[in-house]
Amino acid sequence: MQSPTSVQPAETLFRRDKNRHRTPEQVDAALRAELERLTEEDAHVWTAPNYNRREFVHSFFQYPAMMVPVVQKRLIETIKNCKPEIERMLDPFMGSSTSIVAAMQCGLHCTGQDINPLAVLLSRVKCGPYNHVAFGKDAGHVLAAAKADVSIELTITFSNWRKWFREDVAIDLSRLVRAIRSVKRLDARRLMWITLAETVRLTSNDRTSTFKLHARPIDEIEERFVSPINTFERLIRKNIEDIKLQARSLTHLDYLSKGRYTREVHLMLQNSGQEVFQPVINGVAQKYDLLVSSSPYGDNQTTVPYGQHAFLALQWIDLEDIDHSVDGSVRRTANEIDRRSLGGSLQDAKQEELAALFDRTPTLSRIAATLKMHHPDKVKKVVSFVRDFDRALDKAVAAMASNGYFIWTMGNRHVGGMEIENDKILIELMQAKDCILVTRAKREILNKRMAQRNDSTVTMSMEDILIFRKTTE
Ligand SMILES: C[S@@+](CC[C@H](N)C(=O)[O-])C[C@H]1O[C@@H](n2cnc3c(N)ncnc32)[C@H](O)[C@@H]1O
């Protein structure tokens, strides 16, 4: 662990009088000292190798690049101990909502955004309401209806479905879809849809070993024994049990009333490069005191194809049940969501915009110049990603309160054999937006699965936890 500036005796200061007003610099110092203490006490504190990453609601769907729940919770608790006034947290790249669920366990108002409709559906189910009794009844109804259904009519229309689904599997999935559609309550239907998404993942012809779509060999497809209705039955029972346990833990913390989280949770289908949602209370747009996130580390195609991983599941789900703003074009091709995500579009940036970007981040400027010499074809992708990320950072920083904190988990990657130092780039971009680096810690990545394309392999074995503070209004 490194501290960019020397550690003040903040902990002692802190302990003397917990409630006295602390200056932002004192909070910074306390935070540095606390992170250092935690790392010294346990070298694996930010890796948490023995922790169950799929505990409770975290097992609903295997979303790529999930953060470690216990690590996110510890980070939020640590920062909240140093600055108890923190109330409102934002994750502009919420993915499967690991950070949001952790923030709920700390009693914060939460906002999460993601461009991937499947991430939004998953988050909306994970964050409640948790009506396990009603869900149990609806699940019984869905299973009975699907098992009684003798229709062989398919509910999907996409052209090459036969590549991805055996006919008997497609018929079973269609029966489940019809049964789910008959459920009255939207929150129950959402739970059924996310359970169906995991059922699709496990029963389609796609290999489960990578996040990129990759069909199994024909003979394996034909010989495989899969039953979507049985798989769905097993998953829905477990999911409802997990909802019950999640609800119990939040009730125990006094953050749940009648199955609902007692603070605000806003989960938005939103491109964070375009807008960051701010709830309005009494006519005033609320700013965030804390941002906890892990963004993509490069364009989705050469890092983690979040959109592609959602493609098959989204063919089966009624999109209007996810959000009124989702339109069918997101499932037109397997690459559509990835194309809309950070770094997905290679549209030329204006010369002045690029020059200003290189000014803000000399590291990117140096990387782009070197890549241009050896791999000119790769420059645009690397630069487009940082340009999009920078735009998203602008929106996020604007939505933060003065002296608000950011906890970014970031990893470097390699393109054309060259290290893309995302940590340095992020620090430079944040500093250009008047956000200072308060402290940082390293964490080992134990099981992140990455795409391997040509020599754009993502080699991530370490990530950085970078904590910043916004110094302006
Ligand atoms: C590493 S994951 C997020 C993990 C998450 N922070 C957590 O706590 O588990 C990155 C997410 O960024 C999303 N994403 C990519 N581009 C985006 C954009 N322009 N706007 C919003 N979300 C985006 C991806 O869909 C993906 O879900």
Model description:
By secondary structure, this protein is α/β, with parallel strands linked by helices. The protein has helices at 10-16, 24-41, 69-82, 98-105, 117-126, 132-148, 161-164, 167-181, 186-203, 218-223, 228-252, 306-316, 336-340, 351-360, 362-374, 376-398, 422-432; strands at residues 88-91, 109-114, 256-257, 260-261, 265-269, 280-281, 284-285, 288-293, 400-411, 413-415, 418-420, 435-444, 462-470. It has a seven-stranded mixed β-sheet, sandwiched between helices. Strands 3-4 form a two-stranded antiparallel ribbon. A two-stranded antiparallel ribbon has the order 6-7. Strand 1 (88-91), helix 4 and strand 2 (109-114) form a beta-alpha-beta unit. The protein is globular and about 65 Å long. Residues 1-14 and 449-460 have low confidence and may be disordered. It binds S-adenosylmethionine (SAM). S-adenosylmethionine (SAM) is lined by residues 65-67, 91, 93-96, 98-99, 113-116, 119, 271-273, 293-296, 306, 341-342, 392.
